Amino acid sequence: MMKSLTQPLAVYAAAVLAISACAFLPAQAMAQSRVDVSIVVNNAPPPPRFESVPAPRRGYVWAPGYWNWDGHHHVWNGGVWVRERGGNQYRSPVWVQQGNGWRLDRGGWVTVQPQPVVYEEIAVAPPPPRFERTPHPRYGYVWAPGHWEWRARSYAWSPGVWIAERPGYVYAAPVWNQRGGHWRMEEGRWSPRG
Q1: What single DSSP character describes residue 149?
Q2: Mean of the pLDDT values across residues 9-17?
């Protein structure tokens, strides 16, 4: 009688041990590998919310907030501090229009190869600005007009785009200035209002 009772207990103990071991395997596998899932939805994300970027924090990078998708609608994920990773640069998540839908590029850490900074001396004045029809106003955005950029030893037109507004700030478009016989472009920038 004792033999018939111990055999099922031994089988039961072995089964419990096997199931317990299997429960930990997926957690270890998930810790070692990253699974990327593309989210494509028909609804365009709302305009980005303005977030006041906190003062710099040593050893950390500010990851700005973005609109995520919860399976039914867009949900705002607020910005957070993430620990720096040497030799890497953080890319913010961004929604990209793809055909008739919108795909969320989750961004993340990207390996950066250091490149020397080279400033080309531009002796040729930029062409006059092109006429662009300003589109109808878009709530939460500011129209940044097109401008000329110096690319591959010649000027190329960069068309105007909508950029998320920053409450309390005024946007100044890029402008070309001549100094010492050479032309330099001042990048577009935000300045406090008043």
Answers
A1: E
A2: 56
